[in-house]
Design goal:
257 residues; alpha+beta; five-stranded antiparallel beta sheet
């Protein structure tokens, strides 16, 4: 190789040396840019994934907090329900004990009610015979009631005590009602005046006959005309046609003790 060629080569080599780094630098820069672009893209994708993870995490956290609150509320509700269940269990025990006691009371009260009805029946038979049919029907109804299975013991007891109360009220009330009595062998419509259980009197519709019940004799006796106006006035008082006032009426003398 001649010197001129060598120099050319040097020059050429120098040129190559100058050109070669430019090409390499361009390629390197492009590679750097590409790498940087990939890094940016990867970073963006990573950030997006991170953002999604954060969003999901926050959503799960919110759901977790909501579930915790719901669990807390359910705990309070379950505690309340448990108290109610415990109270109901205690009430159930009390009810069972009460039912057992009721059965015992029922077995004891039924014979007592039967004796009470028998007492009312005997009292009606021995008492002054006012409203006799009505009072006997009431006793008969009580006997039928006691045999019914569809009526509670409480209702039976209420009816029996109600009958007792009615009989008791007769002793402090005054009453007038219509009835048919056998007078001188003839059935006649009369007005009956009851003054408690002290006096039971009648007067015919035309006012010509008056009488009183004699408890000792167990029969009706006729009265004279001296009681006619008093009985008529007593009937008006009982019917609330006039104001209460003093009335002179015949009564049975008290029995000797």
């Amino acid at each position: 190789m001649s010197p001129s060629n060598w120099m050319s080569w040097i020059v050429t080599g120098s040129a190559l040396c100058v050109l070669l780094p430019s090409s390499i630098m361009a390629q390197s820069l492009e590679q750097v840019l590409n790498v940087q672009e990939r890094r940016v893209r990867v970073a963006q994708e990573s950030q997006e994934r991170i953002d999604q993870v954060v969003k999901k995490t926050r959503s799960l956290e919110d759901q977790y907090k909501a579930v915790l609150k719901e669990i807390e509320g359910l705990d309070v509700y379950n505690t309340l329900l448990q108290r109610q269940v415990d109270n109901q269990a205690a009430q159930l025990i009390d009810l069972r004990e009460s039912i057992d006691q009721v059965e015992v009371i029922n077995r004891q009260i039924v014979p007592i009610m039967t004796k009470m009805i028998e007492g009312i029946e005997q009292f009606v038979e021995l008492d002054v015979p006012f409203l006799l049919e009505e009072r006997q029907d009431r006793v008969a109804s009580l006997r039928v009631l006691m045999e019914r299975q569809d009526v509670t013991v409480a209702e039976k007891f209420r009816k029996v005590t109600e009958a007792f109360q009615i009989e008791n009220d007769y002793g402090r009330t005054i009453e007038a009602y219509s009835d048919t009595l056998n007078i001188d062998g003839e059935k006649r419509l009369v007005s009956v005046l009851r003054v408690g259980r002290v006096a039971l009197l009648y007067q015919t519709e035309d006012g010509d006959k008056s009488g009183a019940w004699d408890q000792n004799a167990g029969s009706w006796i006729q009265l004279g005309n001296e009681y006619k106006n008093q009985i008529k006035f007593g009937l008006k008082i009982a019917r609330k046609q006039v104001a209460p006032d003093l009335v002179l009426l015949p009564v049975d003398a008290p029995e000797a003790g």
